[in-house]
Every structure is written in structure tokens, then in C-alpha cells.
Amino acid sequence: DQQVKQNSPSLSVQEGRISILNCDYTNSMFDYFLWYKKYPAEGPTFLISISSIKDKNEDGRFTVFLNKSAKHLSLHIVPSQPGDSAVYFCAVPRGTPLVFGKGTRLSVIA
Amino acid sequence: NAGVMQNPRHLVRRRGQEARLRCSPMKGHSHVYWYRQLPEEGLKFMVYLQKENIIDESGMPKERFSAEFPKEGPSILRIQQVVRGDSAAYFCASSRGGTGDEQYFGPGTRLTVT
Which percentage of chain B shows pLDDT scores above 90? Predict the structure, then answer.
């Protein structure tokens, strides 16, 4: 029973264009959402988060949008850069542990 | 200002052997979490510890797996009598406080069972 779903295992985007990574969740009680970025042979690093009292949070090139009625969030990266190539996980806290989606592998092509 | 340290980075064990994975949290962090990532999967929570206490082990398999976080020294995840299905990347994270505090992840230990 996946509580957090990332239905696209991979995404390829041209450098300079927008990358949009999607995440769906099942529990309407979730009130805080995080995005992590992971390079090969490294641990995940926190990227950006959003609280359910907002529908948008922006940090530089990264913006996360939350649609509570659809139980959907998305991460926009614009403009995309080759260094953004990584696996991106959305996650929600369930108490203290984090519940992660399966991730989306983003490849930014120069 | 070292981050979360894990060792070894790679560990190869034969079926039936024991695996010991170590995690040193960031300085000032007293909360440690272990996650496991199977191939093509997301990270799955295993266990949450504070110094000398297991707070939540709801994600830990009931047999062969144990974890500790002693008063002194690193946190240890121990897997006895390893099987091929234990092959995975094991990540440790630490936080200063508990619920709501950001978790910082180590680089992981990749366990291969032959």
C-alpha cells in the first residue's frame, strides 16, 4: 500500500527547459511534504518542502506546488541544468519516520 | 563540520554470515534513523533510535535484524544470518530533535550477499 506514489520512473529534459516531477499521495491528513535529491553513491539531500497551508513554495530554480484536492504535488525546476541530473524522491513524515516515493530519475541533456 | 558518517561503504557477505553497519550521526544530533533501499524502490524506514533507546522499530523485520545506539559510539545495525534478499543500500539519517526536525542522511552502506 503505497502512500506516496511517483508514477514516472524517469524523465529526460533538455538543458534550459523546465523539469516537472510529480507525486501523488493517498492520505488527506498529510500536512507536510518534502523533496529529496539523490546522486549515485550518496545519501539523499533535502531540497525543498511545503506545508499544507500553502499551495506553492519557491526556492531559486525550484518550486513545489501542492494541490490538496487532487492529493498531488509537483516539483518544477527551471531552467534545468546538467547538474540537476539525479533521482528525486518526494516524502512525507509519518510521525518521525519519513515515507518515500520510489523516485524519479531526471536526466538533463546538454 | 562532518556530516553523517557510515561505514563500511560497501560490504560483501556470504549467506549465513553476519553484517554490521555503523552510523555516526552529525555532531549535536541524538536521533538516528535507519532506512533500507531495495533496487528500484524508494527508501523504507526500518528503525528510529535515541541514545540507548529504540523509539520505533515498526519497519524492522522481526527476525535477524537488530539495532542499537549506545551512550558512546556509533549506532549499529546488525543483520544475522544474511540472505540474498538482504542485499540493499542501507542509509542512516540523524536529526537534532525528533518529530519535525530535518533528517540528514549519510552516504549509505551497500550490502551485497553472495
Answer: 82
If chain A, 110 residues long, is cut into consecutive pieces of 10 residues, what is the mean pLDDT of each piece? 90 98 94 94 94 95 97 97 97 87 96
Question: Is residue A106 within a helix (H) or strand (E), and if so which, with residue range?
Answer: strand A104-109
Residue with cell 544475522: B80
- Backbone φ, ψ for residue A47 (5° rounding): -115, -60
SS3 assignment, position A84: helix
Which residues are within 8 A (CB) of B91 and not within 5 positions of it... i.e. 6 or more apart?
A43, A44, B6, B34, B35, B36, B37, B43, B105, B106, B108
Contact B41 A102 (CB under 8 A): yes
- Verify whether the Cβ–Cβ distance A44 to B91 is below 8 Å: yes
Of all residues in chain B, the one with the smallest CA distance to A33 is B100
DSSP state of B103: P
Answer for the pair B51, B29: CB distance below 8 angstroms, yes or no.
no
Min Cα separation A35/chain B (Å): 12
